Amino acid sequence: MNDTRLPEHVAANRDYWDSTAEDWVSAGERSWRQSEPTWGIWALPESELRMLPDDMSGMRTIELGCGTGYVSGWMMRRGAEAVGIDNSAKQLETADRLMRSHAMPFELIHGNAETVPYADVSFDFAISEYGAAIWADPHLWIPEAHRLLKPGGELVFLGTHPLAIITTPPSGAPSERTLHTNYFTLHRQDWREVEVDPGGVEFNLPMAGWLKLFRDTGFEVLDYLELKAPDDASETRFSSPADWSKRWPSEQVWKLKKI
Ligand SMILES: C[S@@+](CC[C@H](N)C(=O)[O-])C[C@H]1O[C@@H](n2cnc3c(N)ncnc32)[C@H](O)[C@@H]1O
Question: Separation of 143 CA from ligand 1 center, angstroms?
Answer without folding.
Answer: 18
